Amino acid sequence: MGPNAKGALLALLSFGLYATHDLIVKGLGATYSPFQIVFFSVLFSFPLVVGMLISDSRPGHLRPNHPWWTALRTVAAVTTAAAAFYAFSNLPLAQVYAIIFAAPLIITILSIPILGEQVRLRRWMAVIMGLGGVIVVLRPGVTQFDLAHLAALVAAFGSALASIIVRKIGNDERPEVLVLYPMLTNFVVMGALTAFVYVPMPLEHLALNATMAVLGFAASMIIIYAYKAAEAVIVAPMQYSQILWAVVFGAAFFDEWPDRVTLAGAAIIIASGVYIVLREGSGGASENTPVLQNRGRYETGTLPRVSTLLRLRKDRSKAQS
User: Fold this and answer.
1) Which of 156, 133, 128, 126 minimizes the C-alpha distance to 286?
2) d(CA 266, CA 136)
3) How far is 188 from 243, CA to CA, in rounded Å?
4) Is residue 212 within 8 Å of 21, Cβ to Cβ?
5) Three-state SS for 210?
6) How far is 165 from 76, CA to CA, in rounded Å?
7) 143 forms bridges with which residues in the sheet?
8) 256 — phi, psi (to 5°)?
9) Which end of the chain has fewer CB atoms within 10 angstroms, the N or the C?
């Protein structure tokens, strides 16, 4: 098996685990507030993430070099977590993924003012086409636009904003800063909000929260090996496989059957996203490759970003050599 094929298969496995994570979010969302689900998700993720971070023996501190960008990115990640978990709890899985898949399109737009990226005609056409796909999924005037749809849109924008900020400051900030600030803020903010909406959790539901943490962490580790094995342009589009898992999981567990319009809109969004990834990877079309460097799925602050983990491993390898 060639390295690209190996990387693609590892990425498919990783995003399958991420989709299973989101399946549990939806299942728990029928009973619990998204604030409570996020809180326990972070709580159970802490030991896994901290155990990984403390193995880094290099000297340093946790004061951000770019405090305002770090603060904005933290707010974006925390907002995305609550919005995405709310959307998954109240909308069909396939519809949520279709809307959140607009994040690469928003990243492309935000890269202009934040990174100084020059977006030429072809990528603009892909962005416009993809945003048109979002309109197809939402069907304004035909279906009722409610808070859950707005939450999915907020999650897409928040994830894009958090990702583009990491692209801007990632080389100057320690990975520990990028990982811990959103997680700690999620823990404090969601913990405070959970106090107003708390519903006692039986042991089996606590176990599901712990399973979410393990699934998310395992998926993050697997995608690292995928990027080490294969080219980024091969691995990155594999995130769109989550729409297939959404269709299967939605039908099997929630009797959700996406209609043709939703699938058509999702296909448009995915096609535009894949084109942007391939365009950025072709060389010469993008100076910053903001979408290609995104490396993973939507940002929640409940788990470390794949790009941050990759950098942590790279820095550790340099320190040991």
Assistant:
1) 126
2) 8
3) 32
4) yes
5) helix
6) 10
7) 140
8) -100, 125
9) C
The mean per-residue pLDDT over the stretch 30-48 comes to 92
Instruction: Say how far apart CA 139 and CA 151 lie, in whole Å.
Output: 16
Share of the chain above pLDDT 90, in %: 59
Residue 189's domain spans which residues? 3-320
What one-character DSSP code corresponds to residue 140?
B
pLDDT tens digits, one per residue of 123-169: 999 999 999 999 999 987 677 889 999 999 999 999 999 999 988 98
CA torsion 50→165→308→316, rounded to 10°? -100
Look up tokens 């999650």; give the residue. Answer: 155
Pick the closest to residue 219 from 241, 193, 194, 186 (CA basis).
241
Rounded to whole angstroms, how far apart are CA atoms 292 and 108?
Answer: 10
Token output for 201 = 């959790």
- Residue 310 pLDDT greater than 80, yes or no: no
d(CA 300, CA 80): 5
Can you tell me the distance from the alpha carbon of 311 to that of 135, in angstroms, rounded to the nearest whole number?
36
Average pLDDT over residues 103-132: 93
Alpha-carbon torsion angle 40, 78, 265, 212, nearest 10: -20
Which amino acid would we find at residue 268? I
- DSSP summary character for residue 144: -
pLDDT at 27: 95
Cα-based distances in Å from 268 to 83, 87, 133, 245, 315 = 23, 21, 5, 18, 38
Tokens representing 32? 């619990």
Say how many domains are in the chain: 1
At residue 151, the pLDDT reads 96
Bridge partners (DSSP) listed for residue 140: 143
In the chain, the amino acid numbered 144 is Q
Q: Sort residue 222 into left (φ over 0), alpha (ψ -120 to 50) or beta.
A: alpha
| 73/170 Cα distance (integer angstroms) | 11
- CA angle (252, 253, 256) in 5-degree steps: 75
Report residue 54: phi and psi, to 5°.
-70, -10
Please calculate the CA angle 163-169-175 and round it to the nearest 5 degrees. 85
